[in-house]
Amino acid sequence: MKMKMKMNDSLHAFDFERQFDDRVALEWFQQNWGTAFALSGTYALVIYVGRVFMKHRQKLDLRTPLMLWSLSLALFSVIGALRTSWYMFTVLTTHGFRQSVCDTDFYSAPVSKFWAFAFTLSKAPELGDTVFIVLRKQRLIFLHWYHHITVLLYSWYSYKDHVAGGGWFMTINYTVHAFMYSYYTARAAGVRVPKPFAMLITGMQMLQMLAGLSVLALVFSWKHDVHCVSTMHNITYGSAMYLSYLLLFSHFFYTSYLRRPADDKAQKRE
């Protein structure tokens, strides 16, 4: 309680953040988090039907809608990153690193509670990224749709339990997405973005997965502490998810930026 009082005094929350009812949000997710499975199933079905529908049709350009879509997600991510990182910075400087990992006030503190809810909910509309890929007949890789489905499931599952580590997970993801969707916006607008910037974003995603694994390892080692609340199910699922992401993003980085064209030809001959 003392920590929460000090945090409230040191952080300025906007009226809409302060007035957001996190208790109603928590109750809704506790009752409806399983909806994420229905959304994931619908998403997979839409992808399949969409690809069949587009198979013998001309690809759609959709450059302007894609630019506006990416821009809206970029702005959302930038603001979310700024608000959540300010909260996490304050926890770090006033209560130390261990408390920043084990903190669960993130879900209910005036400055961050709205952004924790918005982050979790946003994983549903972010599925729309794939619609553009399907309608524009671009290459749809396993990493893309697997990542969307598992992030949605794990985010909704974690929010309902207000597990420790959430502040780090969300803040880092907001930050990476701020860069990623800004890059997508520029590309959709026809801007020639240097290749190193794309490499930087993938590198950031790989570091994000390492950070996620590290935070979960710390939560596991401190989970018997009354102030480091989580479950073995959450830690196990989260670790498996982050590890699979790390392997997939590492493979993507190698095949996209490091492997020589000669390697691709040799692989095709095999």
Automatic annotation (TrEMBL):
<keyword id="KW-0276">Fatty acid metabolism</keyword>
<dbReference type="GO" id="GO:0030148">
    <property type="term" value="P:sphingolipid biosynthetic process"/>
</dbReference>
<keyword id="KW-0808">Transferase</keyword>
<dbReference type="GO" id="GO:0019367">
    <property type="term" value="P:fatty acid elongation, saturated fatty acid"/>
</dbReference>
<keyword id="KW-1133">Transmembrane helix</keyword>
<dbReference type="GO" id="GO:0009922">
    <property type="term" value="F:fatty acid elongase activity"/>
</dbReference>
<dbReference type="GO" id="GO:0034626">
    <property type="term" value="P:fatty acid elongation, polyunsaturated fatty acid"/>
</dbReference>
<dbReference type="Pfam" id="PF01151">
    <property type="entry name" value="ELO"/>
</dbReference>
<dbReference type="InterPro" id="IPR002076">
    <property type="entry name" value="ELO_fam"/>
</dbReference>
<keyword id="KW-0443">Lipid metabolism</keyword>
<feature type="transmembrane region" description="Helical">
    <location>
        <begin position="240"/>
        <end position="258"/>
    </location>
</feature>
<feature type="transmembrane region" description="Helical">
    <location>
        <begin position="165"/>
        <end position="184"/>
    </location>
</feature>
<keyword id="KW-0472">Membrane</keyword>
<feature type="transmembrane region" description="Helical">
    <location>
        <begin position="66"/>
        <end position="89"/>
    </location>
</feature>
<dbReference type="GO" id="GO:0042761">
    <property type="term" value="P:very long-chain fatty acid biosynthetic process"/>
</dbReference>
<protein>
    <recommendedName>
        <fullName>Elongation of very long chain fatty acids protein</fullName>
        <ecNumber>2.3.1.199</ecNumber>
    </recommendedName>
</protein>
<feature type="transmembrane region" description="Helical">
    <location>
        <begin position="142"/>
        <end position="159"/>
    </location>
</feature>
<feature type="transmembrane region" description="Helical">
    <location>
        <begin position="196"/>
        <end position="220"/>
    </location>
</feature>
<dbReference type="GO" id="GO:0034625">
    <property type="term" value="P:fatty acid elongation, monounsaturated fatty acid"/>
</dbReference>
<dbReference type="InterPro" id="IPR030457">
    <property type="entry name" value="ELO_CS"/>
</dbReference>
<feature type="transmembrane region" description="Helical">
    <location>
        <begin position="33"/>
        <end position="54"/>
    </location>
</feature>
<keyword id="KW-0275">Fatty acid biosynthesis</keyword>
<dbReference type="GO" id="GO:0005789">
    <property type="term" value="C:endoplasmic reticulum membrane"/>
</dbReference>
<comment type="similarity">
    <text>Belongs to the ELO family.</text>
</comment>
<keyword id="KW-0812">Transmembrane</keyword>
<keyword id="KW-0444">Lipid biosynthesis</keyword>
